[in-house]
Specification:
The mean pLDDT is about 85. Helices cover about 65% and strands about 0% of the residues. By secondary structure, the chain is mainly α. The chain is elongated, with a radius of gyration of 25 Å. It has 2 domains: about 40 residues, no CATH class; about 35 residues, no CATH class. The chain contains 4 helices and no strands. This is Ribbon-helix-helix protein CopG domain-containing protein.
Length: about 100
């Protein structure tokens, strides 16, 4: 887990009791202490995921993929030369669309 930021949230007594029960149950199930804060973070993640539009989720997934691709290229520059995708696409496009450009 990365760096955490403090936020003050005022809960109704019933909300806090429910969160404590969830944390206590999870602590027993997992065999380790699970805090109310952990439960809140997990529930908030689920709610935020649900609240995002499909476009926002897709954009976030693409950003993660691009970051992963950049990390792989930095770590293993010999694996994929920079223009591999364009050259591969050009080869396949020539085959795929040959009937549109006779004499090419």
């Amino acid at each position: 887990m990365g760096r955490l930021h403090r936020a003050q949230v005022l809960l109704e007594p019933a909300q806090y009791r429910r969160l404590r029960r969830i944390a206590a149950r999870r602590s027993l199930e997992e065999g380790r202490r699970v805090s109310v804060s952990q439960v809140i973070r997990e529930l908030l993640d689920q709610a935020l995921e649900k609240a995002e539009s499909p476009e926002e989720r897709a954009r976030a997934a693409l950003e993660r993929l691009f970051m992963l691709g950049d990390a792989v290229r930095k770590r293993h520059p010999e694996l994929l030369p920079e223009d591999w995708l364009n050259s591969d696409r050009d080869e396949h496009d020539d085959e795929r669309f040959a009937h549109l450009f006779p004499g090419r």
